[in-house]
């Protein structure tokens, strides 16, 4: 369950892949609704997007807390310093950008005077006043931040693939099927 010095444990792996799936789903839902005309179909899609966003916020919070509590495996010994620094910056950039996105979404909804829907089961009212200027600000942050997340995710995935296929090290395996132990 816990991380070792060479690979991530099952808890970190599950959290990583659950968050990845949810983030890609959120991006897809956001892009689907972006070109739609106002109406019931768009409202339903936005409500689903917001509901899944609340789950994403909970998962990301658990993921970051787990990362602080359990740490991360060491980089391969032969990994150059610039790659280590890039990897660290990209990982923390993703965490920060995702949290900004997960805060700006609810703030966009709340400053519009609306409660956050949760799968039609309930709604959550934030203690935020309706304010059109604040709504516009948070909406702009939300619309801009997904592109930062997408760019960082592309760098993250390309870096993992580069390490696996070009450098042939264990970076990708430690978050997927595990590192082969030498017998």
Description:
- By secondary structure, this protein is mostly helical.
- The chain has one domain (10-175): Transmembrane di-heme cytochromes, Chain C (Fumarate Reductase Cytochrome B subunit, Up-down Bundle).
- It contains 4 helices and 2 strands; from the N terminus they run αααββα.
- The protein has helices at residues 10-34, 40-70, 81-110, 132-166; strands at 116-118, 122-124.
- It has a two-stranded antiparallel ribbon with strand order 1-2.
- Strand 1 (116-118) and strand 2 (122-124) form a beta hairpin.
- The longest helix is centred in the C-terminal third of the chain and has 35 residues, at 132-166.
- The radius of gyration is 19 Å and the shape is elongated.
- The protein starts with 9 loop residues before the first helix and ends in a 17-residue tail after the last helix.
- The mean pLDDT is 94.
H-E order: HHHEEH
- Mean of residue pLDDT values: 94
Strands of the widest sheet, in order across it, are 1-2
Number of DSSP-assigned strands: 2
State the end-to-end distance: 22 Å
Instruction: Please name the fourth-level CATH homologous superfamily.
Output: Transmembrane di-heme cytochromes, Chain C
Would you identify the regions where 5 or more consecutive residues have pLDDT less than 50? none
Total count of domains: 1
Summed up, the helix count is 4
Instruction: Report the principal-axis shape.
Output: elongated
CATH architecture: Up-down Bundle
CATH fold title:
Fumarate Reductase Cytochrome B subunit
Main sheet record: 2 strands, antiparallel
What structural category do the secondary elements indicate? mainly alpha
């Amino acid at each position: 369950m816990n991380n070792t010095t060479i690979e991530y444990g099952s808890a970190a792996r599950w959290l990583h892949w659950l968050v990845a799936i949810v983030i890609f789903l959120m991006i897809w839902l956001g892009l689907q609704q972006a070109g739609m005309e106002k109406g019931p179909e768009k409202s339903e899609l936005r409500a689903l997007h917001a509901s899944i966003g609340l789950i994403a916020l909970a998962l990301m919070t658990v993921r970051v807390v787990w990362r602080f509590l359990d740490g991360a495996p060491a980089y391969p010994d032969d990994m150059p310093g610039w790659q280590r620094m890039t990897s660290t910056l990209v990982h923390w950039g993703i965490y920060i950008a995702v949290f900004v996105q997960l805060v700006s979404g609810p703030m966009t909804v709340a400053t519009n005077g609306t409660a956050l829907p949760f799968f039609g089961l309930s709604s959550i009212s934030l203690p935020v006043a309706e304010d059109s200027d604040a709504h516009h600000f948070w909406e702009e942050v939300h619309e801009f931040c997904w592109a930062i997340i997408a760019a960082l995710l592309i760098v993250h995935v390309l870096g993992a693939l580069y390490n696996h296929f070009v450098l042939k090290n264990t970076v990708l395996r430690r978050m997927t099927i595990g590192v082969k132990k030498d017998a």
